[in-house]
Amino acid sequence: VINWIGYMKLRRDDIKQGRFRAILYALISFVFGVWLLIANEDRWDALCLIVAAYSITYGAANLFDFITQIFPAKIARKFKQNFRIMLPMFLAAFIPRRVLSYLNERLKVEPEQIAKQLDVHKQDDAPDIQIIVHVGENGPMMFGHVDFCIDDIVLSYGAYDPSSRRLLSALGDGVLFTVNREQYIDFCNHHGKTLFVYGMALDENEQKAIAARLEEIRDRLVLWKHNMADCQKNGEEYIPFDDEYLDDLARDADATFYKFSCGDFKTYYLFGTNCVKLVDSILGASGINVVVVNGIITPGTYYDYLDRQFTLQGTRVISRTVYPEIPKEASSPAPEQAEPEALDAPK
């Protein structure tokens, strides 16, 4: 069903590239599903073989990461550039929520020790780009969200137009907003989100490739909504959003919203062209490729990839900064209750 909807989305947006692959995946999944229903003993043997093959491949990828640590950084980086095997979707989807629960528990037990680990840099150089992984306690944020940041400007993609959402918000008009990094982090922390920010160092060719990819994306954008500050500057009337969260973004964080005139991201699809897919399409321009099961990339997939790369030497990921959620009672004056010390660390 997921692949079939993806095929229909490509057809609706008049995108020929990828149609054959989507319909092929849909047919293979359908045939395999029917076979599992009608087969008897053979189906369990086949499932065991598939799980075993994937587990061996995933284990080999981790062993490969370990072995490359023996080599000098330049050699290791060359070997690891196009070799990424990630967890399957049904496991990766729950990683952000589990990490958040662990972080909150450790902050309660040993706040001072955890606070020292909230901002770690492997080298003194500032990162060229940053990937921001959002996690929340409830709702869709339990599964996370991913943004791209360059030159202190955050690019965030999603189905942000409430009037276009359908199929329980799995489909909708693709909307991208740009916002200042510091304003956005503060805004998210006050709206129930914890942010994991990973900094990446790129060489000159990789930076040029990403700049070219960003230019392609900008060429397909059309302005959808101005923020309040721009409206006041241009003498225009600010028209509030129907969605309270988006309205707060435009008012408090000065976010500017765009829609896509054409291309894959014209229509948002939760199991295809989602927030992670946009970030992956940008990073992919530099040669970073993440291999995932079924082609579905989740925020948990990217968190797992980034955090693993941060723990290894000689990788592009050179920093990790965590910005914990600021509780509502802590963000408002409370004379009898002090704000927890650990939450002050990232600011």
What structural class do you assign from the helix and strand content?
alpha+beta
Shape: globular
The count of helical stretches stands at 15
Q: Mean pLDDT, as a whole number?
A: 80
Tally of strands: 11
Described by strand count, sense and barrel closure, the largest sheet is: 9 strands, antiparallel
Helix content: 40-55%
Structure description:
The protein is of the alpha+beta class. It is 47% helix and 17% strand. The protein has helices at residues 2-12, 19-38, 41-68, 73-80, 89-92, 95-109, 111-115, 181-189, 204-219, 228-234, 244-252, 275-283, 299-311, 328-331, 341-344, and strands at 119-121, 129-136, 145-150, 153-158, 171-173, 175-180, 193-200, 221-225, 256-260, 267-269, 317-323. The strands form 2 sheets. The chain has a 9-stranded antiparallel β-sheet, sandwiched between helices. The protein has a two-stranded antiparallel sheet with strand order 5-10. α1 packs antiparallel against α2 (19-38). The longest helix is centred in the N-terminal third of the chain and has 28 residues, at 41-68. 33% of the residues are buried. The model is unreliable at 334-347 (pLDDT under 50).
